[in-house]
Amino acid sequence: MDRTSAILACGVSYLLCGAICARTRSILESGGVDVVPWLTGSVDQAVDAFRSDSLPTLTMPGCREANLPGPAN
After folding, report:
1. What is the pTM of this model?
2. In Å, how far from its chain's centre is CA 13?
3. Whole-number Å distance between alpha carbons of 42 and 50
């Protein structure tokens, strides 16, 4: 089983990640996973930012997503 299939099979709701290809992102989103890409930092930092609604602070420079509110990098 590839990683994309494993993520979908596990019932993941959100995927916080760094770089992700457009095809994989599309497959995951089609499967109901909310993908939040282009993040940097540790797992603990990402989880804390997710819980406190401050994910834009972890966005990789130059990779600000329209679905992440906050100032542009």
Report:
1. 0.78
2. 11
3. 12
